[in-house]
Design a protein that fits this description.
86 residues, alpha/beta, D-Maltodextrin-Binding Protein, domain 2
Amino acid sequence: MEKITVALPKGRLFDQTIEIFQKAGILKEEVKAKSRKLILETENFKFLLVRAKDVPTYVEYGCADIGVAGDDVLLEHSQMYISQLT
């Protein structure tokens, strides 16, 4: 089975996003915002830690299946294919 690739922002949303995946039991290892590690892998997921403004680009070009970004990044990127989950 192919892993789901998720683009995660290294900026202000980093801690909140990591906490959500940890609480869901998807990401079990401790991850620090200042870490130099840019790829985290679990059994079913591959997490790419990228600049927040680059998240939509990673998804657009197929480098990531899904991404997490703030409203400001989505509004700035504003493509028709981007949808916001609330």
